[in-house]
Design brief:
The protein is of the alpha+beta class. Helix content is 31%, strand content 32%. It is globular and about 40 Å long. The chain starts with a strand and ends with a helix.
Length: 105
């Protein structure tokens, strides 16, 4: 998914799975409040985090604090086991992103 607000572009990729602790052990840790993210050594801004059973990458082509804001909007806990719980979690995350975008305008 790509989010654009006030000329800022943030990309979000999600994949079911768990981060390998060894692969992120040497990366800088960013405190997002409910959970931690790991800063990737790439041009621009990129954070990877674990949100329940989903690994999330949030990136921007330039240095941008919006990446941490968007990453922080992901719930730290896993959703319930049924489809309704997953849809509710996705909806709440999108609402959080919408609020972030509206605040930057």
């Amino acid at each position: 998914m790509e989010l654009v607000g006030q000329g800022r572009q943030v990309m979000v990729l999600e994949q079911y799975g768990v981060l390998d602790p060894a692969s992120v052990a040497d990366l800088p840790v960013i405190d997002l409040g409910e959970h931690d993210a790991y800063e990737l050594p790439v041009p621009g801004s990129a954070l990877v985090l674990q949100a329940g059973d989903v690994t999330v990458l949030v990136a921007a082509p330039t240095e941008d604090e919006t990446v941490a804001d968007v990453a922080g909007a992901f719930p730290a806990t896993a959703p319930g086991s049924d489809m309704t719980d997953r849809l509710d979690r996705g909806w709440q995350t999108l609402v959080g992103w919408t609020d972030l975008i509206a605040q930057t305008r």
